[in-house]
Specification:
This protein is an all-alpha fold and 203 residues long. It has one domain (3-96, 106-201). The protein is 79% helix and 0% strand. It has helices at residues 3-20, 24-69, 71-93, 113-120, 124-137, 144-172, 179-201. The N and C termini lie far apart (37 Å).
């Protein structure tokens, strides 16, 4: 195995490990799968993946140097990210499934493509993963094309990995059709979302 092939294998393994493990994005996708189904949640999962790709490319091309020069920016983003997550957690806790065609009633909406994309920019865990990837896997003298290829590789692995969480949510929906069970599930997901961010706030 050549050095470049070994690097690509390492990047793919890193992406798989970080994409499959629980975190704010995956917990929200799990809850979205339960409450809104796979098709209605596709904009959410695409927003996460594309937003993360844009972040990776930006950091790969030097955005990380801004955080090193002005550390206060990262601290502000952590606070904004946690505030946004509070809002999203409340939305998960109070989610109501979309009605079937022809039915009426008060219901919630799945997170939109743009909402999921925007969340990546205030998600401290996503920043930590992106900065770690850039620092440990991108050669300092790498060409712009190679940097983009590596970021795209992470995204290609990331999309189906986070999609697994959405799929698991659609499987759980059958078990959680009882309104009382679904309410408990949504509140547990909301609390887990907040818990997943707490360690990051102290970094």
């Amino acid at each position: 195995m050549s050095e470049q092939e070994a690097l690509i294998y390492s990047i793919a393994t890193f992406s798989l490990a970080t994409s499959l493990t629980p975190g704010p994005n995956n917990l929200m996708l799990l809850a979205s799968g339960v409450n809104f189904g796979f098709r209605r949640s596709l904009p959410h999962v695409l927003g996460v993946s594309i937003g993360f790709l844009v972040m990776l490319v930006a950091i790969g091309f030097g955005l990380n140097s801004l955080f090193q020069a002005v550390p206060a920016i990262y601290q502000v983003m952590k606070v904004l990210g946690f505030a946004y997550l509070l809002y999203l957690a409340w939305g998960v806790a109070t989610s109501k499934p979309l009605p079937a065609p022809g039915q009426q009633g008060v219901h919630s909406s799945p997170l939109s493509f743009w909402g999921a994309l925007a969340f990546q920019w205030v998600n401290p865990k996503a920043w930590l993963i992106a900065v770690s990837f850039s620092s440990n896997y991108l050669p300092q003298q790498a060409s712009p094309l190679f940097v983009f290829f590596c970021c795209l590789l992470v995204s290609v692995v990331n999309l189906p990995s986070i999609g697994v969480w959405l799929w698991m949510g659609t499987r759980l929906e059958r078990v959680l059709r009882d309104p009382a069970r679904r309410k408990i599930f949504n509140w547990v997901m909301a609390l887990l979302l907040l818990a997943s961010m707490l360690p990051v706030l102290w970094l």
